[in-house]
Give the backbone structure.
Amino acid sequence: MSGVGLALRLGVDFVAGVVVGVGIGLLLDWWLGSSPAMLIVFFLLGAAAGTFNVFRTASGQGGAVGFKQAREAAKDEESEERGPDERGPDKRG
């Protein structure tokens, strides 16, 4: 992924989390009549979710579910980048 594409994805990931959080907070405030309590709570939750998504994308965990699967996916990508000489005679790739 190019630098501009990665930067755009990171920005969209964060903003999407905040927008979804604010939307849920506004709907709950309207439904419960508790303005602005739910807006504040879900804004913070949305910002946390957006930050977590940015962290996952920037650290290369991408769309993998869970940290173990992400680590295994990264190892697979790393072994694909190596040539056959570097894998050794017993490993097939």
User: Anything to note?
Assistant: Residues 6 and 61 are 13 Å apart (CA to CA). DSSP finds four helices and no strands in the chain. The chain has a mean pLDDT of 81. Residues 3-83 form one domain.
